[in-house]
Design brief:
By secondary structure, the chain is an alpha/beta fold. The protein folds into two domains: 210 residues, 3-Layer(aba) Sandwich (Rossmann fold), CATH 3.40.50.1100; 69 residues, Rossmann fold. 47% of the residues lie in helices and 13% in strands. The chain contains 13 helices and ten strands. The strands form two sheets. The chain has a six-stranded mixed sheet with strand order 1-2-10-7-8-9, with helices on both faces. Helix 6 links the parallel strand 4 and strand 5.
Length: 310
């Protein structure tokens, strides 16, 4: 599976709509933490998130007959905008099912990108079940936010870029929700650069990967905290978890480190401020989680002089 996913990453079509984002030095934070920190600036994508990569890669490789019937997904956030922009780029119908509780600013953002918004249910789970049902009834293609190989491959192009931009990278810290991003990035690095350590970071109120590691299988959290809403997922994705457990190409260990760094609300808020002070960018809570995890991991393991990507 690992070699197949790496091939899919190399063949991904993301650059029809996404950009290769800079790997930006963070000199102030680097000096403060005594390590070399760089930010992978996915906030500079057309929809301000990496989610565009996976959505477009999945949609653009559908057969023409399926494209003509349109696509549908459920999301209240970045995946919704990625699917909407992908549909606009390809000239196809894109329906986004969003919970009725979705803030109007997010609804309007999807509409501006050409998405057809359907408000249904009071939670993501209800909206998601409706979207899957609607896809089957109308013959549309359902586009998962993370539990799909082509989606993971799209996100995995970030790993390819990081390695080309900084051959000497030692650590990559990745925020985890459903697992699509970390699975894609780790699959590429685990096969091409197995010396790189990929460290998962989770919000302590939605730590579904840590729970899965401890149980030896995917589990459903009884509830999740919504402060870091972009990663508020109750169960790690089935396909991402399969990938996360794979071994590196040199059999030196799993492609994702088993030590999950848990960060709390205060630590995320501090990382948001750190990011703003560094590059005058205000990131959403989930976008600051990797940096929060870096700070905590460096202190625990007393790292000095390492090359680290957030």
């Amino acid at each position: 599976m690992l070699s197949r996913l790496v091939r899919q990453i190399l063949q991904a079509t993301v650059y029809d709509v996404a950009i290769e984002t800079p790997l930006e030095a963070a000199p102030r934070i680097s000096e403060k933490l005594n390590n070399n920190i760089r930010f992978k600036r996915e906030d500079l994508q057309p929809v301000f998130s990496f989610k565009l990569r996976g959505a477009y890669n999945r949609i653009s490789q559908l057969p023409r007959a399926q494209l003509e019937r349109g696509v549908i997904t459920a999301s209240a956030g970045n995946h919704a905008q990625g699917v909407a922009l992908s549909g606009k780029k390809l000239g196809i119908r894109a329906i986004i099912v969003m919970p009725k509780t979705t803030p109007d600013i997010k609804v309007q953002a999807v509409k501006r990108l050409g998405g057809e918004v359907v408000l249904h249910g009071d939670s993501f789970d209800v909206a998601n079940k409706y979207a899957i049902q609607r896809a089957a009834e109308d013959g549309m293609s359902f586009i998962p936010p993370y539990d799909d190989e082509m989606v993971m491959a799209g996100q995995g192009t970030i790993g390819n870029e990081i390695l080309r931009q900084w051959r000497d990278v030692d650590y990559v810290f990745v925020a985890v929700g459903g697992g699509g991003l970390i699975a894609g990035v780790a699959a590429y690095l685990g096969d091409v650069a197995p010396h790189v350590k990929v460290i998962p970071v989770e919000y302590d109120e939605s730590a579904c990967l840590k729970a899965a590691f401890e149980a030896g299988e995917r589990v459903v959290l009884p509830q999740v905290g919504l402060f870091a809403d972009g990663t508020a997922v109750a169960q790690i994705g089935e396909k991402p978890f399969e990938v996360i457990q794979l071994q590196k190409s040199d059999n030196s260990g799993p492609i994702v480190e088993r030590e999950v760094v848990l960060v709390n609300t205060d630590e995320i808020c501090a990382a948001i401020k750190d990011t703003y002070d560094e590059c005058r960018s205000i990131v959403e809570p989930s976008g600051a989680m990797a940096l929060a995890g870096i700070k905590k991991y460096i202190e625990k393991h007393e790292l000095i002089g390492q090359n680290i990507v957030s």
